[in-house]
Amino acid sequence: MSAHYADIAFTDQVGEVQERYGSQEFYARRRNRHFGPDRFTSDVRTFLAARDSFYLATVSESGWPYVQYRGGPPGFLRVRDDNTIAWADFQGNLQYISTGNIAGDNRVALIVMDYPHRRRLKIYGHARVVYPDDDADLIAELSNPDYRAVIERGVIVTVEAFDWNCQQHITPRYTVTDLEPHLDVLRNRITELEAENTALRNDCRPSEGD
To answer: pLDDT-based confidence at 89, cuts 50/70/90?
Structure first.
């Protein structure tokens, strides 16, 4: 865990709860060191580049948190430099709650999951919405010609802190893409067995002279 992550996450009230459960002393050593913003390590870059989805949390003018799913082809979440990520925001249900919230309060949090390997990365940052009229080059950079979706805007997040979360209680889940190589092996084996079965049947048929 980075020092800056602790500065953001572990407020005084959080500390009181940690004290109740016996973890306050351990986490208190990680606070108030002011080493932020965090810079991505190579393993974080590799992890983010392979993801096809994440969860985005924003805060509304009314103070209510809002969590939304964001998905796309693997790699649609781009690492632009040591502490900046960006993605193409595709057309969805036209509610624009996350986009509107960012206009009022640019603080965001992301939870990025790798279910097959039970890995979870938490990110704090400041988001900025970029429309095609503002920066067509950025939208082009974030686009994927093989993914047929309407890009309404881009989102750039300057990362303040991140932390790898404990893998406890993460249930492994697999997409069709994850399973496809294994399914191909099974399909090929089924084809082989069907061919062997057909050959055995043919060998067992009585000849015309019997």
So the answer is: very high
User: Whole-angstrom Cα distance, residue 21 to residue 171?
Assistant: 25
Residue with the two structure tokens 């069907």: 194
The verdict on 90 and 134 lying in the same domain is: yes
Q: Do 28 and 62 belong together in one domain?
A: no
Assigned domain for 8 exists: yes
Instruction: State how far the Cα of 142 lies from the Cα of 176, in Å rounded to an integer.
Output: 24
Q: What pLDDT is recorded for position 6?
A: 86
Dig out the tokens for 164 from the structure: 């790898």
3-state secondary structure of 91: coil
d(CA 90, CA 53): 12
The type of residue at 93 is N
pLDDT of residue 14: 92
30 contact partners, CB below 8 Å, separation of at least 6: 1, 3, 6, 10
Q: In terms of DSSP bridges, do strands 84-90 and 78-81 run parallel, antiparallel, or are they unpaired?
A: antiparallel
Q: Which domain holds residue 179?
A: 175-201
Q: Is residue 31 part of a domain?
A: yes
Residue 19 CA neighbour count, 13 Å, CB half:
7
